[in-house]
């Protein structure tokens, strides 16, 4: 987000795209797909280093991505933005210290590519069937009309928001249904 803010502040967001390294996302304490989704949301995703790290270690391990669920979420984002061109997936990973055979390097590359291929197939099915898309739309339905739409567009004033709350009372918070989303995603992976 810092880089996106910097580029936007200086009017450079159309001149540069970002290469996202999910391992650095892990180091920052975010989920694997967080920075990929954010860069895509701002139209600035250029390429993805197809590596990951261990949240338990706290250093840059550049491991091969083998988690199909994470790869599914990344590929879902890539599909939603219409592809990843002219960039792509950069396989710049490293095998673990204990993996000393040449075969380990071969298997790790094939395994990571397979994880992304399975992720791509799963993501395509998720988008084709539209279940998660419908649930997200339902979740944020209050932002599609009335004061919610004005808030989403950035046109509602603080005074309008205060008046709305004074007249209508505290809005009932809708459930985030995170477990439902995760269970549905597990169905596709």
UniProtKB/TrEMBL annotation:
The keyword Metal-binding applies. It comes from the Eukaryota. Its EC number is 5.3.1.5. Keywords: Carbohydrate metabolism, Isomerase, Metal-binding, Xylose metabolism. GO terms for biological process: D-xylose metabolic process. Gene3D superfamilies: Divalent-metal-dependent TIM barrel enzymes. GO terms for molecular function: metal ion binding; xylose isomerase activity. It catalyses: alpha-D-xylose = alpha-D-xylulofuranose. Belongs to the xylose isomerase family. PANTHER family: XYLOSE ISOMERASE. This is Xylose isomerase.
């Amino acid at each position: 987000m810092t880089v996106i803010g910097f580029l936007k502040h200086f009017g450079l967001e159309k001149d540069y795209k970002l290469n996202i390294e999910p391992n650095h996302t892990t180091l920052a304490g975010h989920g694997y797909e967080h920075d990929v989704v954010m860069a895509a949301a701002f139209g600035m995703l250029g390429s993805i280093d197809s590596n990951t790290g261990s949240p338990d270690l706290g250093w840059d391990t550049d491991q091969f991505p083998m988690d199909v669920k994470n790869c599914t979420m990344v590929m879902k984002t890539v599909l939603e933005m219409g592809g990843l061109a002219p960039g792509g997936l950069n396989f710049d990973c490293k095998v673990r210290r204990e993996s000393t055979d040449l075969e380990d390097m071969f298997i790790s590359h094939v395994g990571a590519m397979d994880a992304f291929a399975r992720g791509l197939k799963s993501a395509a099915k998720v988008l084709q069937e539209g279940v998660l898309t419908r649930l997200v739309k339902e979740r944020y339905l209050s932002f599609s009309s009335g004061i919610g739409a004005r808030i989403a567009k950035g046109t509602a004033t603080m005074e309008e928001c205060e008046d709305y709350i004074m007249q209508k009372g505290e809005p009932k918070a809708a459930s985030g249904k995170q477990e439902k989303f995760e269970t549905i995603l597990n169905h596709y992976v």
